[in-house]
Amino acid sequence: MLGPAVTTRSNQLVPLDSNFASGGSLRQLFGLDNAALAACMLAAGEPAWRGCQMAEAMYRQRLTSLDEITTLPKALRQRLGAEGWQVGRPRILQVFKSTDGTERYLVQGQPMDPQTVETVWMPEGDGGEAGDSGDADAAEEGKSRTRATICVSSQVGCAVNCQFCLTAKLGLQRNLGAGEIAGQVVAVLDRHGVEVGRERVNLVFMGMGEPFLNYESFMAAVRLLVEEVGLSPQRMTVSTSGIVPGIERFAQEPPEVRPKLAISLNAPNNAIRSEVMPVNRKWPIEAVVDAVRQVRLRSRERITFEYVLLGGVTDRLEHAAEVARLVRRSGLPAKVNLIAWNPGPGIEYTMPSAGAVEAFRVALAAEGVPVYLRKPRGRDIFAACGQLKRTVEG
Ligand code: SAH
Ligand code: SF4
Q1: Domain assignment of residue 37, given as a range
Q2: Cys bridge to 175: 141, 214, 365, 383, which one at CB 3.0-4.6 A?
Q3: CA 267, CA 136: separation in Å to the nearest integer?
């Protein structure tokens, strides 16, 4: 957990970073959980419940400056400000709007940081959530205004090097902190005036990066989003390329804060998977499936296998038969989400034909595998799966 930088010698919050006096770093409150905020307040000689007031203000009311947090006494706000503390919520710097309503955002995680992260808002989802337990709750669906999905990034770039993915071209630039991950969500909820609890929003951790290679910050962000922001983990899905130690850790998370799990399968067998996802050489399909079996699923919960259809490479009918066998043999309650590959500059694959996509879907369905087709969202603004960070050079 992130610890606030305070001394306990005085009732003053003292930033430990000596740079600050010379105009250096500021102290960000956004990203600290209730306990950390309470500790911060106690150290400042304030009652612990002031921490709850701060959490309420930042995560529920979505206030973005200390000045606005009027539940705190003015003198305290001034003192915090003078000592270099600020809310420091990630900011949306730029918005790209698609003709289909999708919006892609460049989000600045930390003040002055030139490396932005990308977040996507899909007002109608992309069909990936179809067939999930709970989503079939028709009564709720009727009531809610929104059924949007927010696609969240966990790293700047990615180290995994999947051959079909544009984000891979960046390499790993850096991990995001918990506040930077949760902040993408809160900033987007704020932009759209979403009333948490009344409106239905799905989160998918499927933006830039591999969440299970930034495990601590990813799960800290999930806990903030569940416990402080009030979102349900049953409406969150984390996707992994199959990082086995991460999946094993994830299996130990309590159900109250554990999102649903999606595995990027993307190939019908180890030979092809190792070609398109070199990470398969380290953790082949069987090892991934074994780790996934350790997750204690909630009632009606299913594992999602994502499957990117690459023209001529993974989209043949015999591949569909292999995928069906693989899913059946896993013994897992599972569904398959098909994604037609989205092109990107400098990537040599081809898109599957519409006929091949449909034939693949029908073949899986005929084998009794629940299968859904994800609609590409925001292709025109490079917001679709695997297209994030178009701004990559070279
Ligand atoms: N790193 C994680 C989550 C982010 S990628 C993972 O790989 O699972 C989210 C999904 O987008 C993955 O299923 C990935 O296989 C898919 N994807 C990547 N590049 C794509 C592309 N160009 N077209 C379609 N889907 C893509
Ligand atoms: Fe990383 Fe996921 Fe892209 Fe693979 S598909 S390079 S794991 S972001």
Answers
A1: 16-86
A2: 214
A3: 29
Set 46, 103, 118, 180: catalytic member: 118
Average pLDDT over every residue of 115-128: 87
In a domain, 69, yes or no: yes
Annotation marks residue 165 as catalytic: no
Instruction: Give the span between the Cα atoms of 94 and 98, in whole angstroms.
Output: 13
pLDDT tens-place string over residues 221-278? 999 999 999 999 999 999 999 999 999 999 999 999 999 999 999 999 999 999 999 9
Q: Is the pLDDT of residue 202 over 50?
A: yes
Question: Which of the listed residues 51, 86, 121 is the one where a domain comes to its end?
Answer: 86
Where do the H-state alpha helices sit in the chain? 34-43, 49-55, 74-82, 138-143, 178-191, 215-223, 244-251, 270-276, 285-292, 317-330, 354-366
Question: Would you state the structure tokens that stand for residue 65, as one six-digit string?
Answer: 């400056």
Structure-token pair, residue 183: 């902040």
Tokens of 156: 């700047």
Domain check: are 59 and 116 in the same one? Answer: no
In-domain check, residue 219 = yes
User: Which of 122, 89, 87 is closest to 108 using CA atoms?
Assistant: 89
Type of residue found at 176: L
DSSP sequence for 249-314: HHHTS-TTTPPEEEEE--SSSHHHHHHH-GGGGTS-HHHHHHHHTTS-PPTT--EEEEEEE-TTTT
| Model pLDDT for residues 299-321, shown as the tens digit of each residue | 999 999 999 999 999 999 999 99
Distance from Cα 168 to the centre of ligand 2, integer Å:
6
In this structure, of 64-78, 272-286, 373-387, the range with the lowest mean pLDDT score is 373-387
What average pLDDT is seen over the chain?
A: 88
Question: Which residues' Cβ are closer than 6 Å to ligand 2?
Answer: 158, 160-162, 165, 167-168, 209-210, 241, 264
| 162: helix, strand or coil | coil
Query: Distance between CA atoms of 85 and 357, rounded to whole angstroms?
Result: 52
**How many CB atoms are closer than 10 A to CB 82?**
10
Verify that 200 and 53 share a domain, yes or no. no
386 CA → ligand 2 middle, Å: 7
Residue 4 located in a structural domain: no
Residues with Cβ < 8 Å from 211, sequence gap 6 or more? 154, 155, 205, 218, 238, 239, 240, 246
* Residue 355 covered by a domain: no
Q: How far apart are CA 181 and CA 179, in angstroms?
A: 5
Q: What is the rounded CA–CA span in Å between residue 53 and residue 73?
A: 11
